[in-house]
Sequence to fold (417 residues):
Amino acid sequence: MTIVPNFQTAVDPQKLDKLAEVAVKVGLRLEQGQDLVITAPIAALPLVRLITKHAYIAGAGIVSTFYSDEETTLARYQHAPDGSFDKASDWLYEGMAKAYANGAARLAIAGDNPMLLSGQDPAKVARANKANSMAYKPALEKIANFDINWNIISYPNPSWARQVFPDVPEDVAVGKLADAIFAASRVDVADPIGAWAEHNANLKKRSTWLNGERFSALHFTGPGTDLTVGLAEGHEWHGGASTAKNGITCNPNIPTEEVFTTPHALKVEGHVSSTKPLSHQGTLIDNIQVKFEGGRIVEAKASRGEEVLNKVLDTDEGARRLGEVALVPHSSPISKSGILFYNTLFDENASCHIALGQCYSKCFLDGASLSQEQIKAQGGNSSLIHIDWMIGSDKVDIDGIRADGSSVPVMRNGEWA
Ligand code: ZN
Ligand code: ZN
Fold:
């Protein structure tokens, strides 16, 4: 006889309901009459149901959810003809782009097994990712340009929990991951909505200071790192809640601990080492070491996953340049938890990081009114990819470099100076 474990008992139903409420009221700030497009792993169905309930209570027009399933994803890699890997569901992404153009909000629930594709042919994974990125571009642009309110939150999917906590039974792992998600998402307190208001105010204080300083570059030093990241002309720091072009102030990432801006695509010099492994679509890329010249990565090494890293860098011209630099104190709650989540949404909030690829147009002064050409002229990068990787630790110092060449301590030993 097999007893099917009931994961619902491992996930506190009250906190899950709070997470759904926070997603709708803080993450999205869904407006009366606004439609909502959700994507979710099928394991996250209990959370999708709660979010849908809270969305309709908030006055949602129509909520539409698209599910993914790990078994069916693997079936493609195992059985599909070779030509399948250059295809993507363009029609679906065109529909999503149309929904956003018509004012719909977007919610993604993360939680897939980060190692799902680790046993599959990396060439096929890379081709499928590229085809998907190209098809997704019209929809992604609406999100990257912050045309609409959007949010990503997570669900403790059993296959993900097993990766994070491999040494305990699955139901225990799900419970531990659920608790870690609830804590990081600030829903394990009496008043989650109030806690988010306070957290947003703290992040605002940091970004306001950085915007006042108007540094021309940031200089990172630490073990294996001596990197100068020039900042884009007219860059603007953001953190926490921010206002989309549709006028709605939302929290795109839950959790979030970062303040971030746009580097200059042509002005990054030196070398940098990653401080945490990067889990990229099924492959763990560890001990990344890259060298920048004129903003471009000219050398890339990794102790693990180097082949995948180099494939990522060859996606397009912008994939070798930076689109984001972000500051996170080493004492952030996610960092203190000591958990490696194998999920960028969490791991990037444990450490200062940089992102390869596409920049965010909102990270420019008056970004909403800038054309793609203007953004490029000011140093904004463009690419099909946006991949964050971690370069901060308690051994990394950061100085802000002013236009006159003088420097100001920004972080010492991973903490705000
Ligand atoms: Zn970031
Ligand atoms: Zn990023």
